[in-house]
Amino acid sequence: MQRTTRLLARLWSAEHGISSVEYALLLAMIAGGIVISVDLLASAVSNEMIDTAALFGEDDVLVGENCGSEGGAGEGGGNTCE
User: Fold this and answer.
1) What is the pTM of this model?
2) Mind listing the pLDDT tens digit for each residue in 13-68?
3) Residue 61 CB: number of other CB atoms within 10 A?
4) Phi, then psi, of 64 in degrees rounded to 5
């Protein structure tokens, strides 16, 4: 019993494990912030490119994921995927 108490007391007072957990949490927060920032930046750039294409009078502005497969840009005017 005394051995278990000493082990628990030693583990409770150890600080090298705590700092590694803090670094891991900090790294996870930074990585999450980067992922969110890149996603927001990609959306903003995509919207700006669509707006710019509309300003230049492009009829074939593609919006969506699979717009280029059938009847997309370049196959006659007025093909807009939404």
Assistant:
1) 0.50
2) 767 777 888 889 999 999 999 999 999 999 999 999 999 988 888 655 555 555 55
3) 19
4) 125, 180
DSSP reduced 3-state for 15:
coil
b/e code 46-55 from CB counts within 10 Å (16+ = b): eeeeeeeeee
24: domain range?
Answer: 2-55
| Amino acid identity at 5 | T
How many structural domains does the chain have?
Answer: 1
23 is a domain residue: yes
Q: Is residue 43 one of the residues assigned to a domain?
A: yes
User: Quick check: is 65 in a domain?
Assistant: no
Tokens 């900090």 belong to residue: 26
pLDDT given at position 40: 97
**Integer-rounded Cα radius of gyration of the chain:** 27
Is 22 contained in some domain? yes
